[in-house]
Amino acid sequence: MTTKAVSVTIEEHLLEYANAEVAAGRARSVSAVVNAALARQADADREADATVRAAVESVRSDPAAARKVRRMTEHVLAQRDQAALRTAE
Predict the structure, then answer these.
(1) Long-range pairs of 59-63 with CB within 8 A, sequence gap ≥ 24
(2) Alpha carbons 86 and 25: distance in angstroms, whole number
(3) Residues whose CB is less than 8 angstroms from the CB of residue 35 and which lie 6 or more positions away in sequence, other chains included
(4) CA pair distance 71, 52, nearest whole angstrom
C-alpha cells in the first residue's frame, strides 16, 4: 500500500500513548499507531453507514414502518420548533 508523509497535530496524551505502544513493541512506529486507529475508525464508519442504509431500505419496504417513522419525525421536529420558540422568548 502506498503511503504519504503528512503533518498532523495530536493531543499530547495521545502522542504519549503512541510512543508507549512503540516502546512496548506493540507498534512499529507512531505512524503505525495512527494508521491502525484510522483504519478502525474507517471500518466502524463503513459499518455504521451500511446499518443505516439497511434500516432505510427496511422502512422503505414496509408502509407501516414508513408511517411510524413519519409520525416520529413530525413529533421530533415539532419539539425542536417549540424549543426554538422558548429560546427566542
Answers:
(1) none
(2) 56
(3) none
(4) 19
